[in-house]
Structures are given as structure tokens and as C-alpha cells.
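Pipeline run #58 for the internal structure catalog. This entry was flagged by the ingest filter as a single-chain record with no existing model, so it goes straight to prediction. Upstream metadata was stripped on purpose; only the residue string is passed forward. Reviewer on rotation: M.T. Logging verbosity set to normal.
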Amino acid sequence: MFFDPVNPVHPVSFFMASTNPARGMRDFLPSDVRKRNYVIGIIKSVYESYGFEPLETPAVENIETLMGKYGDEGNQLIFKILKRGEKLRESLESAVESRESESVALDSLTDLALRYDLTVPLARVVANRKNDLPKFFKRYQIQPVWRADRPARGRYREFYQCDVDAIGSSSMVVEAELISAVSEILRRLGFDDFTIRINHREILRDILDTAGIPAEKHTDALVAIDKLDKIGSEGVAKELSDRGIAESASSMILELFEQTRLITESGKDVNRTIVSNLLNIVSPEVLADIGKIVQYAGDATVTIDPSLARGLSYYTGAIMEVNVPDLGGSLAGGGRYDGLIGMFGKEQIPACGFSLGLERILVVMDERNMFPTEVAATSADVMVTIWNDETVPESLKLANELRSHGLRVVVYPEADKPDKQFKYGSQIGVPFLCDLTHEDIQSGTVSLKNMKTREKATVPRDKAAETILNSFRVAEK
């Protein structure tokens, strides 16, 4: 027996369901959430310091909003949602009657899709709400997206993106500010070995034209080139061949990229040498634009890399990516997409954005032990015990007194043996234990125990919060 999507009341057979989340999805335990919140907090702080405003969009979009915006490979990774109820029944009957092909029939059964990224929804919002937004709209957005991808290290089917975008200006100041903001975030998180690579879609087009690749094959070539970091030169050469690119063109492109790699590894006047290597291939105007971005980015270390492709088809100008040595793939990426908003309206509006990969940042920070000790610590500063049923009201009252001083307080929920309450306090990693016995209640005192040093002290009840806070201050010095 099975679940009938058209008739949800259809009986089902009962079986033991797996307790694992769906493949490519994850549960986050408290320590995981604290780490995520720590990273997101820094990202928000930096974005807001640059004047970017928060935006949120729905998890579900109309399918026509997403389809055709990411290239053929991107379209295949969109999570589509079946029509519901009578609409699904009608579509099924229509597909059967018309004897449509399997792909056409499947497409006719879907009308919505899970959000694939945050950029296309932003473009839809700007086109839809243009009159409600300022001339130059700077926004950040931190929300989950979904892709029907093959899960791998640091790659999931549901994951968060941390986007920052500037709408309304074609100035290279936009790219430079985005690079600066992302650089500041990574430095504040503790990264000191990241590389920011930059390229331009016009540089790639000029290289492909010079190699003799016809315009109708440019997309195929870019999809293959985008995999250079993953499959290497030989893999790209094979894929270019499989996509109908001549061997002579493939060799010319890969030789240029190898020259770039050697220049970069030399570490000597890298950007100037790479630009010199491109003078006879790329238009001076595009090279000047790239030069401005590098100049305006200030302290951020930016390297020009003509092999950087980025697979999304909506990019029109500068493209950027951030890499670290111990992670295949990128920590962040983005670029200019001046034509995307126009797909939803009559007006072409310039736009540029950068997206930080939260999941990959967390993977690297975990593996490198980059999180401050307090981030993974318990969410409570002190635990109040319950001595017996008669002391419950006073224990709850004490907890509120401590909270009024800014302390995070957990109350052991029932009367229990002292050693069991102590064991629980150790398990959750709480720094202090507050005992409130009958004697303490009568004398107006509290029995404090430092869970780290095992030291005990009896203090006046109205001084308990101050004693705990002072201990934290000493520990921070």
C-alpha cells in the first residue's frame, strides 16, 4: 500500500520509519546552532556596518521564476513541487490522454519549486517592488536554499546562503565594497589564508573568441572550465572535447590558464603580469575595470584569474570567488548580473552580489578548531537545584532573581538526589551550581559551587548574582 498524493486519505501500511533526516539534510544540536549563530552574528554585524539592510523571501517560488536562470545544469538541480489535489489529478489525466513525453508530462505536474538561491528571488522582489525601494538598494539575506545535488563534504541539499547585494549602480565601487565586506568577515572569523580570485565574463568571452570557439558553444565551454579546480586540466580537456570543442581551441585555453597558475605561484607582481599576458586578447576597457576593482578593494588581497568561470548563466561582468587551501571548492562567490532583474520587468537594472557559504565556513572552522571556547559552551551560566518539593517556589524565585541580573539560568525540573543533579550540571557544562536548602532559605544565603574548580562557597542570596558575574570577569582576564 502507498500514499496517494491525489487522495491523501488513502490508507497506508505502517512501518518503522528511519530516524535519520532525508539525505543531504541535517539536524542541528544546540552546540551546532550556537556555532552557526556565532558565524551569522559576525556576518550580520559586518554587512550592517557597510549599510546593507535585511531582506527575506519565501522558501517556495513559482517554478517559472526559477527555471531558465541558472543554465541547464542548474535547472536540473531545482527541487520541484507537485501540484496539489484536484489540479494534480487534472494534470495527470491530461498527460495520459495527450500521451505526452515523460519529461513534458513531469513538467506539467509541477507549478512551484523550492528556492535554489537568493539572487533570483531578490531580482524578482526588485522588479516587483521597485517603487518602494531606494535608487541604490543594498541588502543582505541569510536564509536556506535547496538543491537536488549529490551530497559531499561541505555540500548539502539544504543549506544556508549569506548573500549581500547592491542594486542600481554600475560603478566598480560596488564590487570593491563587496570584496572588502567579505574580507572583513573572514578575518573576524579567524581566517588568514584565504584567496580572493576575480575575473570578468568579457575576459572569458574574449579568450574563447581568440581560441576560435563559436558563440553558440561559449556556454558549453564555460560549464567545462568552471570545473577546472575539481577535475583538473585533463578532465576539462576531455569535457571540452565531449562538448564539441576543437582540440586546438582547448589546448590554447588550457595553456593560458597554466601560464596564469605559474605566474600566481611565483608571487611576483602577479596581477600586473597576468594583465600583461592578456593585453593582446582582452579589450583594454575590461582590463581597466578589473584594475579599478583591485585598486578600490584596498587591503583585501585580490588576484586576477582568467580561468575563474562560475557556472551560473546570469553573470554579465566581474565574477569573484574566495578559496582556502584545505577545502575543495569555494567559501564564497559572486559577481555582477546586470541582466537578471530585467527578466522580470521592462527595465534593466545593474546589480552585483556576493554569497558566503555558511556550511563550508563551518566545516573549515570546525576542522581547524577556530571557534572560541565559549561558543560551544552551554547556553546557561548557572543551574539552580531543587532540594525537595517544599523548596520549589524559592528555587524558581531565585532563578528569576539571577536572570534579572543578566545571567542565563536553568532550573533542575524536579526534586532529586544531589549527586544526580550535580551529574546533570556537569553533563550540560554549566559553570555554576546554586543549591537552596531549607537552611539557606531561612538564613537568606545560597550555596554556590564552581563546577570547574569544585570550590564551594556560601554567600548572601542578594550577592549570588554579583559573585557569579565577578567570577566570569576574572576568568576573562
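catalog note: Residues 127 and 345 are 6 Å apart (CA to CA).
catalog note: The chain has a mean pLDDT of 89.
status: ready for reviewer M.T.
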